[in-house]
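Pasting as-is:
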Amino acid sequence: MTETPIRTRFAPSPTGMFHVGGARSALFNWALARQRPDGRFVLRVEDTDAARNKPEWTEGIISALAWLGIHEEDPHFEGPYFQSAYADKHREAAEALFKEGRAYYCDCTREQVQERRGNPHLGYDGFCRDRGLEAGPGRALRFRVPDGGPTVVDDRIRGRVEFEHASIEDFVIARADGSPLFVLANVVDDVEMEITHVVRGEEHLSNTPKQQLLWQALGRTPPVWAHLPVIVNEKRQKLSKRRDKVALESYQEEGYLPEAMVNYLMLLGWSPGGDREIMPWSEMEPLFAVSDVNSSSAFFDEQKLRAFNGEYIRALNADEFVERCRPWLAPERVPWPEENFDEDVFAAIAPLAQSRVAVLSEIVPNVDFLFLDEPVEDEKSWSKAMKPGAGREMLAAALERFADPALPWEAGTLKGALEEIGASLGLKLGKAQAPVRVAVTGRTVGLPLFESLELLGRERVRERLRAALAKLERDASASA
């Protein structure tokens, strides 16, 4: 017996930035569709809200999915389709439901319903069910919810969920102008596209009984339902774009690798089993099962995501790391003059930076001292390193020692020279190198000092040591 092909769908609205929760839903649907040769992931853009939709948001959705590895070139990908193109199908379905007696027209206003019910919180009372109204101005089309019994939703994640019909009002499926509401359009689109699995966020569970009733009224078997756990922040509050960093684009801009983001998002509610968490997509995909998704809320831990990203960055080879850094080294994104940048110097320092950055945007503040005319001075670092007496003595001695042309300008000998100078002043290497590091790089923390000195070159290092000594003299004069 041939199994029915799996057809999942991802149906975002192009009304804003791409939410990480949407990215998680897309990945789960993608994994499910790709597990079968004939599986399909359908991208449907729900663009019927003309007032809020923008073409750039649609482009952003497609771009964000491609960044995650969900792209049009893959044979499992289908679309994008646009909900607005199916308007005639929506109207036909509404008309069919009316003709079959499964829907009826209603001219009640909200105020009239509230007056009849005596409570603004109670839903529609079915007043127009048997009035026999036809379509006309001010008349919306309502779906006739069956009397008695519950609608049972068999959810792959939450199990059996019952919704009593007494708690579901006869809901509007089309406005008075004939335009369908989302609840109807969504179902008709799924029917037309032969969607077999609806895998989406928990917030849509409350809509599911209405949608299931519509599927059945249209004479179709409802899809497999699976409602993913809500994603929460550290306070266990649902992620909110007004309060939390939720836009996938923000993480892209900051320098998160797509493979790290994919790995992390796949673990929000699901586990491949065992203790291993860092796992490439090629290994996670065949292991994924909707039935293994946890129904409990999933904590979006940005610090853990950063740690994941750092692991993926360190796993790159040197050439890959340099290539991944290029967007952040574009002239318009760096603080140094374009002509100061040296590809060879960056390639030499990159492996040292690779072990220290957690996101790619951190590459610039790590290497800027190599390409700026003067280092960016951190005041706290200066105050901490340039202690009266020892700081000046260390800089003066280093300036003199580094002037010796017999001193080979390479990391090992530079380290030995500073160790000797420090010992003569009663300082261990950590204390001895601090003033030199701040004078040369502007900070007390950064890339390995002696490799940095080697790449800067003798003259630039001595120039910065002289500048630091001059600043110490000015500071001393000002405080005298």
